[in-house]
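Please decode residue identities from the backbone states below.
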């Protein structure tokens, strides 16, 4: 290990516009040489090179602590990268030696077992148990907008229950910083029971940094099993969702100025990147659903549901989006009940789509009305907005695949209403629309009513 006295003055260096180290004090030059580099060549210390590229791209000074490999050990460095006309100036202090963190055999084994487990979807938290990542596999969805859950407490997603002995395995594991499994829970948005399992994530000092977890759905009695997703859907979902989630997370991080002051232009770029990423994740969801509903063996469960309660849930999931758009959602009153038959999560998916569309196309300071009513043998939810309306000639077309009234307007993939109507009809119901230009739109979801 080649670290020297951390109390010595900061080490200086200079990287030109091509990323080459052209000036370096002795300590930096020696560290770069041990990493395989040299003066006049690209900087060979990846952490410093990445920080320099970021400072150059954002055109602002960045200060950050980094860990750089030095032989069999690590060096804790505090690096300031400052853009200049000729390149990037580096000032490096700290130089504290650290033992590299390596997982134990037991930790590696548990992690491998976790990854291989047959989870329906995955989640991660930080040390405060706030969600930092949610990855939904094909064929299973907790309902609502997943991105809105990031940064929220884990208990916003799950209602944690006691096990058969009255204990909370997750709480016990948290106190001991250990893994846990078979933690009973319920998805708040859908009421669907799940079992949670997780392994602790530790920082380099061995401190608790959060959980890496999995959720497995629990079969409910008398539920009709949905067909397994096909190979294409699974490959599409897994290949795209994780990288898109990472893109969104990094773009959101840039917007929060975590790396220091940032020009407002780049904040806008980051916001555009995050928005585009969320749009693509929505498209992945739609394509996976499209593959499922068009299979000949597709079927839905016939569950006893409360359509008024589902309307309130869907409106609640879209409340933040509506507030940001200056739109108020007027939903069914608490205590209002409308018994119906349908699959809980699929009906919630339909209502989120209908209310989300109404919010998207509503002008500022307008209202979206959501009403639940009994119509003979049918239970119905009406979603009405004050938008610009839909011409008669477009009212059939909007329910076709990849069709939108005006492709130039920001919106979804053109699959949402097609999927929603197919789902409604698979449950013995339907979706219709009543609208005229300048008079808003009124969508009607009907399902078989229960007495």
């Amino acid at each position: 290990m080649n670290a020297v006295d951390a109390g010595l003055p900061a080490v200086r260096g200079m990287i030109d516009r091509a990323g080459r180290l052209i000036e370096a004090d002795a300590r930096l030059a020696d560290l770069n040489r041990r990493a395989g580099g040299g003066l006049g060549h690209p900087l060979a210390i990846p952490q410093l090179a990445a920080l320099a590229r970021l400072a150059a791209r954002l055109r602002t000074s960045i200060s950050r602590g980094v860990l750089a490999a030095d032989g069999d050990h690590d060096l804790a460095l505090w690096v300031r990268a400052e853009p200049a006309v000729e390149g990037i100036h580096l000032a490096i202090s700290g130089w504290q030696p650290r033992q590299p963190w390596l997982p134990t055999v037991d930790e590696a084994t548990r992690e491998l077992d976790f990854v291989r487990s047959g989870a329906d979807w995955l989640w991660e938290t930080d040390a405060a148990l706030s969600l930092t990542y949610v990855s939904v596999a094909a064929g299973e969805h907790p309902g609502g907008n997943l991105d809105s859950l990031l940064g929220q407490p884990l208990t916003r997603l799950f209602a944690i229950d006691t096990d058969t002995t009255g204990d909370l395995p997750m709480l016990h594991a948290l106190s001991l910083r250990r893994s846990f499994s078979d933690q009973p829970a319920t998805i708040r948005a859908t009421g669907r029971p799940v079992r949670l399992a997780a392994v602790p994530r530790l920082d380099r000092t061995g401190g608790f940094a959060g959980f890496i977890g999995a959720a497995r759905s629990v079969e409910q009695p008398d539920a009709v099993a949905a067909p397994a997703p096909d190979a294409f859907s699974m490959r599409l979902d897994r290949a795209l969702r994780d990288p898109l989630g990472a893109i969104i997370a990094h773009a959101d991080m840039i917007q929060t100025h975590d790396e220091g002051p940032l020009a407002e232009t780049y904040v806008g770029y980051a916001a555009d990147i995050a928005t585009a990423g969320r749009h693509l994740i929505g498209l992945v969801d739609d394509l996976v659903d499209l593959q499922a509903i068009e299979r000949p063996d597709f079927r839905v469960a016939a569950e006893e549901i409360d359509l008024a309660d589902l309307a309130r849930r869907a409106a609640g999931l879209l409340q933040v989006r509506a507030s940001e758009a200056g739109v108020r959602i007027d939903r069914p009153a608490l205590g209002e009940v409308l018994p119906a038959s349908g699959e809980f999560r699929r009906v919630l998916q339909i209502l989120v789509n209908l209310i989300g569309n109404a919010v998207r196309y509503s002008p500022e300071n307008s209202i979206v009305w959501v009403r639940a009513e009994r119509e003979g043998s049918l239970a119905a939810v009406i979603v009405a907005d004050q938008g610009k309306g839909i011409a008669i000639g477009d009212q059939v077309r909007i329910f076709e695949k990849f069709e939108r009234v005006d492709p130039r307007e920001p919106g979804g993939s053109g699959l949402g209403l097609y999927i929603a109507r197919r789902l409604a009809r698979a449950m013995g119901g339907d979706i219709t629309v009543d609208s005229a230009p300048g008079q808003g739109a009124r969508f009607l979801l009907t399902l078989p009513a229960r007495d």
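Observation: The first helix runs from residue 26 to 34.
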